[in-house]
Amino acid sequence: MRRIALAAALLLLASPACAGVADVWARADWGADAAALLRGFGDRAIRLDPPLEFGDSEARVALPDAEIGGHRFVVYFQEEPGGGLMRIHFERPRHGAVLGVFRDTVAALESEYGEPTLACEIPRQNAVGNQATRVRIWRRAHGTVRAVFRDTTLGAGEGCLAEERSGTSPCGLTGHIFVQVSRGPGAAGCG
Predict the structure, then answer these.
(1) Within 10 A of 8 (CB to CB), how many other CB atoms are there?
(2) What residues does 130 pair with on adjacent strands?
(3) DSSP for 43-105?
(4) pLDDT tens readout for residues 44-67
(5) Model confidence pLDDT, tens digit, residues 145-187
């Protein structure tokens, strides 16, 4: 929840969008630390204190003004635990994670990188609460771009707190759109 609220706040404070995937990727050096990223992106970058955790990484620097396909995204520079950029994560606020935005995002990425190397449609799995997911992957010699859309699902109980299950409001998992850029070939599949 904290990450969702932060992303929404960053979008409200942001100056006009000006950085897309190719621009950010070209200006970010793999292995760079937070100080180097802050210097490299100047006043467009903000320091996150405390950093946001992403499981295998932390983001200490963000760009609130990215744009893909005419839609705003927040960029989180994910660093390895010891420091050093390992992944660039573009995330759309949850309220704006709809299929039309994902289509525009994929069209913009196709314009930049051509047809995806891999495209997957993963159906919703009610029994385990998984959302329907669309994944597009572009593998290039210098890195991998992965676009993911997880559809909204009101039936998935995994996203509900006990008090929300009482029936006072619908609960479930919200939509999610993100684009990740990583060095190397990236994951083997869409999962």
Answers:
(1) 15
(2) 125
(3) GG-EEEEEEEE-SS-EEEEEEEEEEETTEEEEEEEEE-TTSSEEEEEEE--GGG--HHHHHHH
(4) 999 999 999 988 899 999 999 899
(5) 999 998 765 554 554 555 544 555 455 556 788 999 998 776 6
Distance separating the N- and C-terminal Cα atoms of the chain: 24
Residue 109: closest CA among 132, 129, 136 = 136
Among candidates 70, 69, 68, 50, which has minimal Cα distance to 59? 50
DSSP character at residue 174: P
Is this model's pTM higher than 0.90 or not?
Answer: no
Contact 105, 122 (CB under 8 A): no
Cα–Cα distance for residue pair 143/135, rounded to 1 Å: 17
Supply 15's token pair: 């100056």
Query: Mean per-residue pLDDT for 4-10?
Result: 47
Please give the Cα distance from 127 to 18 (Å, whole number).
42
